[in-house]
Design brief:
Strand content: 5-15%
Radius of gyration: 19 Å
Length: 163
Amino acid sequence: MVESTAPTVASPGSIGHASVGEAAGDLFLACDRFTRAAARLGRTRDASASWRAMAILEESGPLRISEFAALDRCSQPTATAMIKKLEEAGYVQRTSDPEDGRAWLVSITTVGSDRLQQVRAETTEMIGHRLSDQTDVGRDEVAAALRVLTRLTDMINEKGDNQ
C-alpha cells in the first residue's frame, strides 16, 4: 500500500497535526478560502488580480516585468497585459531601468497606492460588517491568529523562494 503524502484539509476544529509543516499547510488552505470569501464580499470595480498586482509592486518596489511575473506566478505575456491595464488606469508607471536602458521597471503610483488602500479599507469594512454579530470568535483570537500568521509569513520569506 502506498501512503499518501498529500496534505489533508483539516476540518474546522480538528487537532493533532503530525508536524508544524502539516498544520501550516492546512493554515495555507484556510487562508486561501478566507481570501476568496473576502474577495466575494468586495464590490469594487477592480479585479482581485489587480489588487494582487498592486500589492506586489507596493511591497517589492520597482520590478522588471519578468520579476513581477515570477512573483505573481504568471506568464510574462499575462504580466505584460496586467501591467498595461494598470498603467492605463494610472495605477502603475513604467520607467527606464537605469542598469539596462533596454528594460523597463514598473512601480506603483500614488494613485495606485491610494486605490489599493481604498480597496483594503472597503474589504476590511465589509468583513467587519459580516462578522459584527459573530460571537464564536473574539477580537483577541483574531489578533492572535494575525500575529502567528505574520510570524509564519516572515519565516517563509526569510528562507527565500527556493529553500
